[in-house]
Amino acid sequence: MQKANENYCNMYPTRILSKTGEECELMRFHPQKITKERALFYGENSLIMQQLAVSGYQNQFDLIYFDGPFNSGRLFSMPIHELETEMINSWNELKTIQQFTSPNLYITEYRKRIELAYSLLKRTGVFVLQTSQKEGHYLKILLDEIFGRANFLGEMIWKMRDDDLTINEPYSLNHESLFFYSKTKLYKKPELNFQSIWTDVGYYESFGDNSSLLGSKKPEKLIERIIEISTEEGALIGDFYCGSGTLPFVAEKMSRRWIASDHSRNAVQLTKKRLEELGVHIEIGHLVDDFDVNLLHNGEYTKTSVVPFSLYEFNALRETVHNQPIRIHAYDFTSDIDSVTNHPHTFHYIVPVIGAEGISGDETTTISRPILKFDNGSWSLDVPDVFLWILYNIKHVDHNEEGEFIYSWDHLRSEVQRIQALVGQNWINSADRDEVSDVFGHVYQKSLVLAV
Length: 452
What we know:
Elements: E1 2-3, H1 6-9, E2 27-30, E3 38-42, H2 45-57, E4 61-66, E5 78-80, E6 85-87, H3 90-101, H4 103-120, E7 121-131, H5 136-147, E8 152-159, E9 165-168, E10 171-173, E11 175-182, E12 197-198, E13 205-206, E14 216-217, H6 220-230, E15 236-239, H7 246-253, E16 257-262, H8 265-276, E17 284-289, E18 296-297, E19 300-302, H9 311-321, E20 327-330, E21 346-355, E22 358-368, E23 371-375, E24 378-382, H10 386-391, E25 398-399, E26 405-406, H11 409-423, E27 428-431, E28 435-438, E29 443-445, H12 448-451
Parallel strand pairs: 3-16, 3-17, 4-7, 4-15, 8-12, 15-16, 19-20, 20-21
Antiparallel strand pairs: 1-22, 2-17, 5-6, 7-11, 8-11, 9-10, 13-14, 18-19, 21-22, 23-24, 25-26, 27-28, 28-29
Helix pairs in contact: 2-4, 3-4, 4-5, 6-7
């Protein structure tokens, strides 16, 4: 058990972008080439925006749209209907709780990302932030500070539902706000005029059969209007909280170029799937780090960056240690590490401590990554510690009627045991030619030898 890396608990990147960008040299995109038309990334958006800035995209975006976290305290879990449970990344869950209970942390984190968006915008560019009334007034002050009060273009009110979402009797909510800012006075004003209250662009929509991935999506007409107000054909748009992918989906149809990302694997996979409906087949990119020998101590390689441990880093590690067994600890892993077999190294996720006292933001532990195997003509997953693997993939916290977070260790243990009985040994949910997905949505790449 170790002290938690504060950089992850508070989502502070371990490699901050300096004015000259030197500190990003160890980080790169995979695949390295970003197409001029479109790119979709999985990962922490502050790091992705940093790397874009040092990869030729500073002052290049015509529009950047943030539909980021509203700090509502809502835990964005994914329902798994077959297991009658909800899946969540434990670090994302902890981050949500920390920011909801410490709003200054939420503002600090948002400031960092808005400043990065500012650096990526053209001098003629537009920034749009969508939010709710809980934090909207604080974010407006923050936006005035970063963009300048004179560059505030307007606030648009979107009526996002007909019925009222009760927040606090007798006060209810059925709208969200969109703050529009230009980067400079060089902003090109469109020959359009819209009233400030939008009741004609639709409401949140359900995914129907795809509801196991994400609960809802923005109406296309809303995104169409944002793009129409702010850009012309051929413009470059950034969406670094892309969620279900409505913006890249609509941008593609409106002949705009786009770069999008999300920290949820399920969200990025859903975005990819929606784009395929338009005949757009795209490889999901991510950040990779160079191998750092300074992280290697006493048979362990402990990676403290939130950039996933990848095959690129793994190959350099093997060249250094050869057949010496190494325990590799990381916050996340890319699926390509599973494609290499017959090595003595083991992979372990760094996770917050979860136990009778709750979810710890101060200490970490590790759990083993399942091992993909091919036996008797079929693929299977060897899960070293079934209880822990289930525990760290399901939601741990609920809300009571007063909106407070509640936690029950006894209930969690019962849930794990129930799910364990349902799963048995059937961990694999789906498989294609190259990859296998488990019941929690984790992806594993098949062996290079067997995949040929």
